[in-house]
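Field reference: "sequence" (input) and "structure" (output). Example, Thiamine-phosphate diphosphorylase:
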Amino acid sequence: MPDTALALQTLVQHHQALGLNSHVEPHAMPPDDSPYAIAYAAARRLGFIPADADCIAQAWQRQSERTGRFDPTAWPCEPSDFGLPPPQSAGGFAPAPSALGLYAVLPDAGWIGRMARAGVPTLQLRFKSTDAEAIRAEVRAAVAAVAGTPAQLYINDHWQAAIEAGAYGVHLGQEDLDTLAPEDIERLRASGLRLGISTHGYAEMCRAAALRPSYIALGAVFPTTLKAMPTPPQGLARLAAYAWLLRSWPTVAIGGIGLEHLNAVAATGVGSFAVVRAITGASHPEQAAQALMAAWARARGAQT
């Protein structure tokens, strides 16, 4: 094993240079020279939350065992080092397209219908209410609004109503997973609906992947005021690392993304992108959607 202090310094400086973090936070020296201890200390210095630092350190330990050496410049990026299953392995959810294109997150069925008619390929109804009947009615209206269009509709949170209405899929956050019993997950899987899951770092990605969902959302890429985030903005460098790790999965970047970001977002290798205010806050939403789709097609084309 290398000198502990030198290995730690090398790891931190190397990944700072890659742009994974803009600053280094103080953190204690690792208690030993194991790959796990050094990687955990480095990840904490690089600003990763404890759960993500633990996930990174475990991956680094597995990588070192697999390769027979500890290299502080070789950030783990193999799915097997993170314990990730193949995306289409047995017991998984129904598959989604590998590239979902523009993914518009919208507040009600009226918006869903407008964007379906505008040609947006992937839509999500994020309807906020505590009234169960209002939720069921809105979900039914949203499903009806995409009928006869190619749009694929995901329902945020309200998975029972989505099953009843025959939606294409559902999207769940980490807090939603906390409320689901194993039998709920099995019912959702057996329904044939697609499942998307929000993640905000390595630990949540590993948790999501264990369920073999249809796609994994990665965020928040940039600052957003739409909801409280459990982690700071991930940034483009981390997004690229996540996209490479999940290169066999359909992925969606989300959080503060606008037209001006699409070239940089596409360059990370992520499969698609989601927006909220870039459409709902636009003075001409249909035109904004067309501009986003055209820009994304150009950006993706430049990567091939």
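The mean pLDDT is 92.
The longest strand covers residues 194-199.
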